[in-house]
Design a protein that fits this description.
The protein has helices spanning 3-17, 20-26, 32-53, 64-87, 90-97, 100-112, 118-136, 148-167, 178-197, 206-233, 236-242, 245-256, 264-280, 282-286. It has 288 residues and is mainly α. Helix 5 runs parallel beside helix 8 (148-167) and helix 7 runs parallel beside helix 11 (236-242). It contains 14 helices and no strands.
Length: 288
């Protein structure tokens, strides 16, 4: 697979993550860790079926550092992200967590040995500016010392996901089938976190169960498999900058579904994030 093709495959994960907010909204009142356990369980089991059909079960046998990277990335990010929102206001926690695409661009040189070029930085910067506009809805935001724990957890989440994405390039020889095991292990750990921190709330409607199934098959399932392909074999700097499309597309999906209202802030964020993504991906179309 060419680098351009792998990059496009990886961007497919960003498109799937655009459905995350809507499907989560439709899943009812299921608490975060329980929802993670259920959806990663669905994604892992679906991956197990495909892996078995392909004769790739042997690919689940990997050295412990590979398991530490995979499970640490998937479970570690979600544990820190959910915990951040328990300890800090949503706007500030979201903004700090959305540093991960910028951190991926920063780590791209470490991952590939290639120089990250000016248009990558400018594209990522425009994307982050668009995320600020989108998350704050054009209003202000402030950081207070009493929420320092939550801010630290959000920053740790950004560091974990960006590190997982960048370091995956160092184990590019590991088949993507291994993600099946990472998802199943994450489901188990999320279930433990749910028992420790939450009260169980099951979906009440068929539509809510279908939303959970959709999450497990898409944004919390297939997305991690194709992201693995993208970060291992694609242009990781482009993927990092283009990832700011996820919160924008997610908001547009909510607007289309009638869950959110259109606004000038969404339009401005659309210009900034789309422009940033196109700028970062310039070399894919017109050369370096």
């Amino acid at each position: 697979m060419s680098q351009r093709s792998a990059t496009l495959v990886g961007f497919g994960a960003v498109l799937l993550w655009a459905l995350l907010a809507l499907l989560t909204e439709l899943s009812g009142a299921v608490p975060p860790f329980q929802l993670a356990a259920m959806t990663f369980g669905v994604g892992g089991l679906a991956g197990l079926v495909v892996t078995t059909a392909r004769g790739g079960l042997g690919n689940l046998r990997q050295p412990w550092p590979v398991w530490a990277l995979g499970v640490g990335g998937l479970f570690g990010y979600h544990f820190l992200y959910f915990s951040a929102f328990r300890n800090a206001p949503a706007v500030e926690a979201s903004l700090i967590a959305y540093l991960w695409p910028l951190l991926i661009v920063l780590g791209a040189t470490l991952a590939t040995g290639d120089k990250v070029r000016t248009h990558h930085w400018l594209g990522a910067g425009l994307g982050f500016l668009g995320a600020i506009v989108l998350v704050t809805r054009g209003g202000g935001f402030g950081f207070e010392a009493r929420y320092a724990t939550g801010y630290g957890l959000a920053l740790a989440a950004a560091l974990v996901w960006s590190s997982y994405s960048v370091l995956s390039r160092k184990v590019a020889h590991i088949p993507t089938d291994a993600v099946t095991g990472f998802c199943l292990a994450t489901a188990i750990l999320a279930a433990i976190a749910h028992i420790a921190f939450e009260a169980t709330v099951w979906p009440e409607l068929v539509s809510e169960w279908l939303a959970v199934l959709g999450l497990g098959l898409g944004p919390v399932g297939l997305a991690f498999f194709i992201w693995d392909i993208g970060v291992k074999h694609g242009d990781i700097a482009v993927l990092g900058a283009a990832s700011y499309a996820a919160p924008l597309l997610s908001t547009l999906v909510l607007v289309a579904a009638g869950v959110a209202e259109p606004s000038w802030t969404i339009a401005l964020a659309c210009v900034l994030i789309t422009g940033g993504a196109l700028l970062a991906a310039k070399s894919m179309f017109v050369g370096r």
